[in-house]
Every structure is written in C-alpha cells, then in structure tokens.
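Step 1: inspect the first sequence and its tokens.
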Amino acid sequence: MKSFVYISMMFALCGCKPAADSAWQMSSRLSFDGYPINWQAESIKGCEQCEFKKERLLEPDGVSDVITVFQQGQWRAEHRQSHQARIVFENGAHFLLVKTREDGLLELENKHAELKIITKLAQPFTVNIGENTYDAVISKFEEPRSDLGLSDPLPVKLDYTVLKSQ
C-alpha cells in the first residue's frame, strides 16, 4: 500500500510543472531560447514555426506600427509602437489604459475588467484576463506635458511588447 501511495504522489508531482513555454522569456525585452527578439527581422532564431505579421495602422491619434508573432498559426506575441495611451492584448479584445502617476510610476487600468497595475518602464508585469495570462513590458512612454500651452496637444508615444503565456 505504501508503494502505491509513493507512486501516486510521484505521478502527481510530475504533472505539476509550469504550463508556460520556457523557450519564451520576458525581461526588459522579449527573448526566445535565450536570444532577444529582433522586431525588424523576418524570423525568430530557433523558432521555425514562428512567423511575423507587420502592420501599419492609421488611428485617430497617429500611426501605430504593430508586429505580431504567430507560433504554429496561433497569436503568441506582439510589439507595438503607438500614439495611444493603451496596451492592446490579442486581437484588440482587451486593453489597459496607461498614465504616469505623480511619483513617476506607470498606472495601468481597465475599469471594466477591474484591473489596476502599477509598474515602471522596462519592468515586466503579468496580466490575467479571463483564462489567459499575458506578460508585458513597456519600453517607452511619453505623455505630452500640459504646461506647454499648445493649442494642439502633442501625441503620446508608447512602445510595448506583450507575450501570451501558454
């Protein structure tokens, strides 16, 4: 009976491993198998089943450059340079508004999903939306200063990367 219990525990422990693909890592930038992703390249070193889709979106606040990575045909990651103060997740279904706090940290929120995250530039953070988990990092965020007295506000500049955990 003891051996049955030990064997059962071993099988249970073997099943307790992270679901995330350890080849993908998010730090101050996204890497695959230890190599930083070059968003200007046409492929990802070591990921033969990955492909890039590059888009330029004309939006009311300016042009957004979006590079999406599909792995085995599924949405996996995205790098976006935008003029909107929001982080968009997987096909635009969810988003987080971004603003700078008085202490210099970044506040991310979605009031509809009751999400609020405090972070800083180049610091990865995790977002759980429904059954999906995303790792993200903001590499650049510039808001127009209100003390400039301009009649037309300057656009926001937001660069970020999102990775869908699996």
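Step 2: inspect the second sequence and its tokens, then contrast the two.
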Amino acid sequence: MTRGAAALLLASTTVALPLAPAVAQETRVAVDVTAGGAYSTNPFLVRDGGEGAASTELAITPQLSFVDERNQASLVARYRRSDYLTRYSAAEAYGFSALARRAMSARLNLRADVSYDSSIIGQNGLGLVGAVNPNPIPGPDLGTPDISLIGLNQRQNAVAAAFGADYRLSTRDTVTGQVSINRVSYGDGGNAFLLSSRTAAATIGYSRSLSERLSVGAQGSGTWIDYDNPGYSGHTYAPQGTLTYQLSPRVNLSGGLGAVFVSSTTPAGTVTATGLSANFNGCRDGGRSVQCLRAYSDAQPTGLGDVSRRYGAAADYSYQLREFDVVRASIEYSRLNTTSNTTLQAPRTDFVSGQASYERSFTRRIFAGASVGYRHANGRGFGSPSDVTFRLFLRTRLGDIR
C-alpha cells in the first residue's frame, strides 16, 4: 500500500504537474517532534467498558514545500506512537499527504493530491496545536474515520488520490472538475466481517461571479463503490447549487445545497434512499482570533458493507495570546444512518468529540502545552463508550521556523 501510494505521489508531482524551471523557487524544510504523556479513561473507545491507562506519546512530522510565482507543492509525513504503561499494547499511526498546484496560464489551474493514512479506529492523537487555519486546502476524502467501527480496536488503511482543474471561461465564469480514487482496507489480522472497498468519484461544477464578494453556481458529483466481496456495492449522485460570499474583509462563507441519491446493494438486494446534500464552511479571521464553523450532509461507504447517510457539524476556535502562545478549542458531531438494514451495522451511530488545548512558546523552536479531550460514541448493539483524556506535551521544530 505504501509503495503504491508513493509511486502515485511521484507521478502526480513530477509528471502531471511539472514545476517551471525558469521561475525562482522557495524551498522550506521543517520537522516537528512532539513528545508527551497522557492519561485516558478509554484510549480506544472499547465497547465493552475499556479501562483507563497512562501512556507516553511521540509524534514526528517532517514537512517539505516548494513555492514560486506559478507553482506550489508540499509533502507532509506523519508518525505517531503511544506506549501504554498498563493493559494495552503500543499503538502506531502513520501516513502522508502531498499536494501540487500549477498555474498553466491565466485561465487554467491544475491540482493533484495524494493521501495515505494507517491508524487504529478510535485511537487518540496528541491533541490540537497551533492556530486554526481559516483557509485550509482540502485534500481528497479518505473516508476516515469510519465511526461505525469505533470500539473494534481495528486498524484501517486508506489511500486516496485526486486530480482537478479550474478553467476561467471569462472574468466572471469558471468551470471546475475533479476525479478521485480511494481504497480502504483493514490490516493486522482484521475481522472476517469487515469489507475493504474501492471508490471512484467525479465532480463537475460551474460558478459565476456576480460581484467582487459574491459567486453562485451549480455542481454535480457521483461516486461508485465496489467492495472486495462481490455481493456488496453502491453508488451516489448529488446535484447542488453553490454559493461563495465574503460577508466582510474578515468573514468568508461558502456552501452548497441540493439532494443526494443513494443506492446500497447487499446479498439481500438493493435499497435506495434520497436525502439532503449540503455543506457549509464559514470562518472569521480576527487576526489574533479565528473562529470557523462547518457542516455537511452526504453519504459514505462503511466497513460493514453499507453506503450510509452521513451528517456532521463542527466548530473551531483559536486565540493567540502572544505571537506563539495559542489557546484552541474544537467540538465536532457526526452521525451515520444505514441505507440497508441487512448488514451488521447499527441503524444509527452517533459520535461527539471535544478538545481544548494551550500551547506556550519558550523560544521560536520550543513549545510546551496541555490539552483535555472528551469523546463519546453511541449505537444500538454496542452501547455508549466514552473517553476523557488529559495530556502534557513538549514540541520542537527543526529546520525552517517561518
């Protein structure tokens, strides 16, 4: 899996989007190393009453980026390890994300993204650090975590790649398109009832700028899901109207509204459903403070063979006390509703998580902080596991400190 993802990354960044050699280029290299200790009341959200345990934690995040007047490319790798002092075996999570952007002309922009992630579903991370990014660059949807599998202490591997383009028809009109592929599988022995899947997706859209602050448009997307077990498959189609609006110099809003048509096939037959397709993103960048809201309603294939309706909402907040001292908080809610009732999946699964952290700088390279987090899952058939985690951590940055 890793070799295949790496090969796809090289193809995306060196073949599909070659960097222009004639333009001066800025290169940045940095490595973040974070070490800490934690106590969690249920580290893996085990369904049958997990026990609390203390752990040591280590995270390493190397970053490489290239930027010039027409191009942008970056590669970020992630490795995280938790060693529990009692009750649990060590847990590792690792992966990478890569992106490439190229302005082919004043009208045409190309982009490519590759992501890979391998982690235990329900495993806790090192907590939130840094300020909220009010202008994140979204990568391909990995379909993780699959909240229908929380509590199984199961490793999930996901690799995704996407290629897209934006073309300006005129000063006001833009056409966009993207195709992507996604593979989700289960390792470390796995469970016989978990189903690996492959998903292909395509999106095409049109937007028109009505003013400097307002754009409206429409888009259509489709996904096609095939499971390794030939008795399971599915597809979705989602037309939407879209809007992007700059409410003020500090506040940006974007969203889409439409319908989603879902089909889920199991050995018992095919079930179809229709529902709301929607997404919303809004951020206020106040300089020292950033607040963001996001929400969505769509569909997601699960590891239990269903193409489920997915709903969620989240809020992020950060405040910079000083240049590198940051307080941050986040809360998120997500829900899965099954389309087919013939799988082992609970008809409805709910998951809520919240986290708050404080990070203080001693120098421009050394930081320390603390965080507290809460998670709770609920689904018929596996109870309502919850977890509270307390952390202390020390982080250092090697290389570029910009």
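Step 3: confirm your contrast with the notes below.
The radius of gyration is 22 Å. The first strand starts at residue 26 and ends at 40.
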